[in-house]
Amino acid sequence: MNVSLENDHLKVRINEKGAELNSVLSKDTGLEYMWSGDPAFWGKTSPVLFPIVGALKKDSYSYQNKWYTLSRHGFARDSTFQIVAQQKDSAIFSFSSTPASREKYPFDFELQIGYQLIEDNLEVNYMVENTGPDILYFSIGAHPAFKVPLVKGTAYEDQYLEFNETENSGRWPIVAEGLVKNISIPFLQHTSILKLTRTLFNEDALVFKDLKSDRISIRSKAHAHGLDFYFGGFPYLGIWAARNADFVCIEPWCGIADSVLHDQELVSKEGIVKIAKDESWTRSWKIRVY
Tell me, what CATH number does 61's domain have? Predict the structure, then answer.
């Protein structure tokens, strides 16, 4: 089932499966900003990554001397959420732990994802509550895929990404198993611009750990349309696209794939978030389209 939100500037559609954002249509520009989800390239549009981001070493982890198996990016993206609140321009979706989830991930939790339209902005809020007796260990991330090229008749290479700070940041390579290498490679050097090309992601996603920016924009040298993506509070950022597909994913993460050197202990996993019994944790990201 799809949920539709609308205000004077935007029409947005979200699927109850995964609480996944499927469409962001601007009434002002007439443009669709989200990737179509063509399964010939990549059948998702904006999956939520929970309770892990990326891959685990051997798809498994250890917690309190017991081993668990969990596939890449976790299970929330394939789970059905419940609508707990809805108005014309906002909705909140909820997913809680189940006996099936506890077989892979032995924690009690509630994950809420909220969508709010504010003029020409879409704000996405994550709330994680620890409903169990022990410390909750988790990671969470966004994976929205934006349509590139945005305007018909323009080329992929006409688009570029612009950071709101001058960056000097290495990329952390990903090996075939989806794990992150333990040494970075120089990449962004005294620049705020990253040109989009069809070969940019031939070696998988660009992964950054130390960006200064809290905003990245998709812009074009062929027209004035684009979007601003605000991700303050997320310490990691991934940028990715499938080969020859007409999109780019901007992925803010609280958490990251296992390092090739990780010992597979959940509590020592890089970027893991920890919250105590009855506590909750929030983060949000936002886009502005034009």
Answer: 2.70.98.10
Judged by DSSP in three states, 118 sits in strand
Give the amino acid at 29.
Answer: T
Domain count, the chain: 1
For 176-204, the pLDDT digits (tens) are 999 999 999 999 999 999 999 999 999 99
pLDDT tens per residue, range 158-175 = 999 999 999 999 999 999
Per the CB < 8 A criterion, the answer to whether 175 and 142 are in contact is no
Stated pTM of the model: 0.96
One-character DSSP codes across 45-84: SS--B-S-SSPPGGGEEEETTEEEE--TT-SGGGSBPEEE
Cis peptide before 149 (omega within 30 of 0): yes
User: How far is C-alpha 290 from the geometric centre of its chain's CA atoms?
Assistant: 21
One-character DSSP codes across 252-284? EEES-PPBTT---BGGG-TT-EEE-TT-EEEEE
pLDDT in tens, 42-95: 999 999 999 999 999 999 999 999 999 999 999 999 999 999 999 999 999 999
With a cut of 90, say whether residue 1 has pLDDT above it. no
Q: Which domain holds residue 111?
A: 2-289
| Three-class secondary structure of residue 101 per DSSP | helix
C-beta of residue 9 within 8 angstroms of C-beta of residue 24 = no
54: phi > 0 → left, psi -120 to 50 → alpha, else beta; which? left
